[in-house]
Protein: AdoMet activation domain-containing protein
Organism: Desulfobulbus oralis
Amino acid sequence: MPALVKELKLEGKTALIRRLERLAAAAVDVARPKAAARLSALKALDADRMRMDHVILTSPLMVQHMAGLGRVFPYLVTEGRELHEWALGLESRFDVVVSAFLREIAPAQYLKLLEEKLLQEYGMRQLSLMSPGSLAAWPIEQQGELFRLLAPVPERLGVALLPSFMMKPEYSESGVFFETEKKFYNCRLCPQPACRGRQAAYRGG
């Protein structure tokens, strides 16, 4: 809660903080976030393409960072339909803005839990991840191939892929966990300056 108060710039605004607390409690009550990952065999085909199980994915960046691996873990994490539908019923601008923060937190927490579970279950020291659409080097259209690879997981988790290749519920994320000696962050290749989720400085390239 203190982090949310700071992020929303509500310090000293007692009435709004109480309202935030009520919204957060309601969100916790209805939220049913979900996450899943799959162990997939990996083979580099050329400088641009990799085969994960039966699906071919195209990204020179993926080949660069994953070519020497024999396995990866495609994943899907979502806020869940319950939280999405709860937010649709909110009316005031304040409530809608706050709900967006709360909806973003839920899958982010589950993604961390999923990473911890994979590390423990497979005896790995460190994982990095990439997600389609976060970088030009792995375009959003590849979301379709990733959903084919993960099927029927998206349907079981209640996540639909839209014609735009965005997901519904909107606070959902798909990608690939991969074992790595040095932590890889998409952020190092992303020039967007105003990103709350930034984990590393932009280095270009």
Observations:
- The chain has one domain: 2-189.
- Confidence is low (pLDDT under 50) at residues 187-195, 197-205.
